[in-house]
Amino acid sequence: MKVADIRRIFNKLSLQVRSTGHHYGWLTVNDKKILRVHYSHGKGDLPDKIMHKIRGQLKLSGKDFKNLVSCPLSYADYLDILKRKGLV
To answer: Whole-angstrom Cα distance, residue 76 to residue 80?
Structure first.
């Protein structure tokens, strides 16, 4: 997976972004920060270890993460998943 794919995920989920030594994104729902996702600056492919961490930060199963990346999973669907898990 490429860094550009992660940027698309950040945009798709409307994460509030801050960039320092890393890229940080916060999912905010009803003015409440729900979760934080981050990755380092860089180009090219991200290692599988980093992708696993990002998936964990997003609180998604492997299947749901793949759907998020390939686009069938919408922002509303993502919020439904978080609601089922009691995070929203």
So the answer is: 6
**For 6-29, what is each residue's pLDDT tens digit?**
888 989 999 988 877 778 899 999
Contact 55, 13 (CB under 8 A): no
Contacts of 13 (CB under 8 A, 6+ apart): 25, 27, 58, 75, 78
User: Is there a contact between 54 and 39 (Cβ–Cβ < 8 Å)?
Assistant: yes
* DSSP helix/strand/coil, 83: helix
Domains of the chain listed by start with CATH number: 3-84 (3.30.920.30)
- CA atoms of 37 and 52, how far apart (whole Å): 12
Q: What is the pTM of this model?
A: 0.84
- HSE-CB for 39 with a 13 A CA cutoff: 27
CB 67, CB 73: distance < 8 Å:
yes
